[in-house]
């Protein structure tokens, strides 16, 4: 398997397969089929078989996929067979929601710190986190070798904050600000913008 | 132009183009190129030209795209040249963030109501919204001809709540619960799950 030749579009679907497998595993199911996965996810069974076969032979004719085995392989491929510390930058509504979110557990991530630059917020408690000053952010990122940040600052501050994160060593940014940010080629950015998802659906209404 | 033949993958990129164009327009820029858009978004200029050409001839050789004209066309195509009322279901952290979010303005959407089923929350004020009981949700959806809902309930309640929304007439659901939901073929679902985005990036780290 040569990681370089797997198209990004397939990589993007693997987390969705993994989520569906975890959902089945939580119900106590032990094997599944591309048909069943397809119905859960809303992708064709043929597409799922094709995507998964890129990484080796997993399914057995007639018996389907072992959920535990396929989960383990996907977790290894996506490098979430470990736990990544992730910081949250911006302690507004979205930052609060991320600090409280319990959907990270067992999926490879743990929120480790929460930052803001508002003197009225710094030092306050959000769940189990004390809001830290963005003045110490670069230092904390370096000390703790943080590679992943969730950016939940206002759009007007997003680029400047992203620059600080990148300079401190962050290599992956999940950007909640509704604005495109520029980063060097070796830094990955994904966007969470409810409006782009909504607009994608209104096309069909 | 036959809407049926435009692949969904292209439709999914149009909101991202629209966001970048609005970003440029807000800076007072009047024309742009596929090259410039590509740099903002991180997609190749060739891909952008190809996608946009599906909908007609927009660019002029040498002068590029008129931002106002292309924005207007994309807004029409995506049916966001109007304002859609959207309801928020679930008044937890994510529901609060969505009720306060100011990124919907000028992008085709307006939060119109906020629902929860917790008696301790019903009647409370979140920004300009009073939290309404989910017991009156179906009735309010029908009365106001709501077609779009943002689902921010716990995973354990997501399928049941989605069923209620669909029965009341909702045709598009933006699901924040980290679980796949089943809906009829004529209902559209998009997912906002930070973990799938994070996992897509850890593959490359």
The H/E string of chain A reads HEHHEHEHEEEHEHEEH
For the residues shown, what is the average pLDDT of chain A? Answer: 92
Strand fraction of chain A equals 15-25%
Low-confidence stretches of chain A are none
- The number of helical segments of chain A is 8
Helix content of chain A: 40-55%
The biggest chain-chain interface is: A-B, 63 and 63 residues
Structural Rg of chain A: 19 Å
Q: Globular, elongated, flat, extended or rod-shaped: what is the shape of chain A?
A: elongated
Which sheet architecture does the biggest sheet of chain A show?
7 strands, mixed
| Oligomeric description of these chains | homodimer
How many β strands of chain A by DSSP?
9
Strand order of the largest sheet of chain A: 5-6-4-3-7-8-9
Q: Could you tell me how far the N terminus lies from the C terminus of chain A, measured between alpha carbons in angstroms?
A: 41 Å
Structural class of chain A: alpha/beta
